[in-house]
Design goal:
Elements lengths: L4 E5 L6 H12 L2 E4 H11 L4 H7 L2 E4 L2 E4 L2 E2 L1 H5 L1 H10 L3 H12 L7 E5 L2 H5 L5 E6 L2 H14 L6 H17 L12 E4 L5 H14 L8
Parallel strand pairs: 1-6, 1-7, 2-6, 7-8
Antiparallel strand pairs: 3-4, 4-5
This protein binds cytidine-5'-monophosphate (C5P).
The site of cytidine-5'-monophosphate has 14 residues, from helix 2, helix 5 and helix 9.
């Protein structure tokens, strides 16, 4: 039997990252934050993204991300890195190269993968596909709080504008646009706490008998 994958997709700041880690912890599964790979390419070598994607030396350990041995976790979170990542993510060659790196995360006992095209392209055979949404203002507020809490300077107005532009570009691109897979379950998180969202997803996991160690 193949290793089970839970795909969690959605627009920027819909809460995918935090939700995916908590679901993975509850199930004892691995977790892939696929946006980090696009951000790593944007940081490491945006001049030749395909080559960078193939050659870059990355490691994910204890929720920290290392590029050539250097901890770049905080650098990666900067909004301008997200904007650059979204620009290069339109390139079919880059997406193709990153496919292999993403699929390598599928290891026993299972994987929770979050991004934009986890359910539609990277893991089309995922046992559970979730598409998270949230109102644009809620997402901008969440991202603002996230950045300020991390001590990163942010401006709410500029953030809303960047998120809107990034989502419009992610949704309009030709390859793997941001869109729910036809068999994805939609979950609006605007009025839900993080724990509530995780609870709904773990309920869907139980329905599919994805018990893992701790769910
Ligand atoms: O999720 P995150 O904000 O870290 O992603 C940064 C950018 O990487 C997104 O705006 C999107 O353009 C791109 N991305 C993608 N496919 C994914 C994950 C991220 O195109 N699976």
């Amino acid at each position: 039997m193949s290793v089970p994958v839970i795909a969690i997709d959605g627009p920027s700041a819909s809460g995918k990252g935090a939700v995916a880690h908590l679901v993975a912890d509850a199930l004892g599964f691995h977790c892939l934050e696929s946006g980090a790979l696009y951000r790593l390419v944007a940081l490491a070598g945006p001049q030749d993204p395909e080559r960078t994607a193939k050659d870059m030396d990355v490691a994910f350990r204890d929720r920290r991300i290392f590029l050539s041995g250097q901890d770049v976790t905080d650098k990666l979170r900067a909004e301008e890195v997200g904007v650059k990542a979204s620009a290069i993510a339109q390139r079919p060659g880059l997406r193709q190269t990153l496919l292999h790196r993403q699929r390598a995360f599928r290891q026993p006992p299972g994987l929770v993968a979050e991004g934009r095209d986890m359910g539609s392209v990277v893991f089309p055979d995922a046992v559970l596909k979730v598409f998270l949404t949230a109102a644009a203002e809620v997402r901008a507020q969440r991202r603002y709080k996230q950045l300020i809490d991390k001590g990163i300077d942010a401006n709410l107005h500029a953030l809303s504008r960047d998120l809107e532009q990034r989502d419009a570009r992610d949704a309009a691109r030709k390859v793997a646009p941001l869109a729910p897979a036809p068999d994805a379950l939609l979950l609006d998180t605007s009025e839900k706490t993080l724990d509530e969202v995780v609870g709904v997803i773990l309920g869907w996991c139980r329905e599919r008998e994805l018990g893992g160690r701790r769910a």
